[in-house]
Design goal:
This protein is α+β, with helices and mostly antiparallel strands and 199 residues long. Helices cover 22% and strands 31% of the residues. The longest helix has 15 residues.
Length: 199
């Protein structure tokens, strides 16, 4: 399995301007039926995701592919060593949220592209999605609760939106307080050494 570089907004040295440009770019749809180049993009995203042990999901732009592809666990969120079998994850190509239901639920989210922090984000507890699966078949799926949150988070990436764009509280590690205070000038970060979750 390949170990792809995950693009980030910052690293220990500072802001990653070049990577931000890719992460902020809205992604293009993939034309069906998928050609060989797009099949390779899908496989590359799957392999990159499966190489990560604790990620709940991954979007193509996070590994430098500006196409509308996401992958995420559909079970086993609390298991460190989940099975990684094909039945344990979903791949959605050109996903579109067609319906939302319920009152917004606020929860702290982490992100591989915004390392070391969590941000409180409000999301719908139920969504319906239209997309293609990894084979190019049209599908319609309903996701609820935490899974709905993961899907909405990954779809945000396809629009160039990150958790730091939300207005919720930002939780930062105490040892990096000065660094993040410079990044989040407009927000008042909450210092929290327990920041650990990632989507």
């Amino acid at each position: 399995m390949s170990k792809e570089k995950i693009l980030t907004v910052w690293n220990t040295d500072g802001i990653n301007e070049g990577e931000i440009l890719i992460l902020r770019k809205p992604c293009a749809d993939i034309v069906a039926p998928f050609d060989e180049a797009r099949k390779k993009d899908i496989k590359k995203l799957i392999d990159a995701f499966l190489a990560l042990d604790q990620a709940a999901g991954l979007a193509a732009p996070q590994i430098g592919i500006s196409k509308r592809i996401i992958i995420f666990r559909n079970k086993g969120f609390k298991e460190e060593d989940w099975s990684k079998s094909e039945s344990d994850y979903d791949v959605l190509v050109n996903p579109r949220i067609t319906q939302t239901r319920g009152e917004l639920v606020t929860m702290a989210e982490g992100c591989l592209s915004c390392p070391e922090i969590q941000v409180e984000v409000s999301r719908f507890p139920e969504i319906k999605i239209r997309a293609y699966d990894q084979s190019g078949r049209k599908i319609s799926k309903r996701y609820t609760d935490y899974l709905a949150r993961v899907v909405q988070h990954e779809v945000d990436h396809l629009e160039g939106k990150l958790i730091i764009d939300y207005d919720g509280a930002v939780y930062i590690p105490k040892q990096r307080q000065d660094f993040f205070a410079r990044i989040f000038k407009q927000k008042e970060p909450v210092i929290d050494d327990a920041v650990a979750g990632k989507l």
